[in-house]
């Protein structure tokens, strides 16, 4: 599998190590690019203030202040916490051309990013991310 700019992940584990760390559902999404069913994810409608980390490696990926209601069935963000937090890669699976979003640290599959859908966000982008690929760390009250 080729990754953006030919970079290697900073966190590298064997397939056996990933399977030991992740639940079968987490493994399917994060390591095999599966997609959770729409409107079933833990964070689809979450309004909690905090930081969303990669469930596989703990890297900060998104913040709650960029999360918005897209009504698409998955958590949606208009911008990653840090441009270097994610890698974007062309995805031609399922007979479509999409842009896959990967964690830059461990190269786990997170979801896809779409542009120009008219949501009126500051970036005009929708990072459509699987809940199971994320872990919400609530802000201190």
From TrEMBL:
Domain MsrB: 15-139
Reaction catalysed by this enzyme: L-methionyl-[protein] + [thioredoxin]-disulfide + H2O = L-methionyl-(R)-S-oxide-[protein] + [thioredoxin]-dithiol
Organism ancestry: Bacteria, Bacillati, Actinomycetota, Actinomycetes, Pseudonocardiales
Keywords for the protein's UniProt record, in alphabetical order: Oxidoreductase
Organism: Prauserella endophytica
Molecular function as annotated in GO: peptide-methionine (R)-S-oxide reductase activity
PANTHER family: METHIONINE SULFOXIDE REDUCTASE, METHIONINE-R-SULFOXIDE REDUCTASE B1
NCBIfam families (UniProt xref): peptide-methionine (R)-S-oxide reductase MsrB
EC number: 1.8.4.12
Protein name from the UniProt record: peptide-methionine (R)-S-oxide reductase
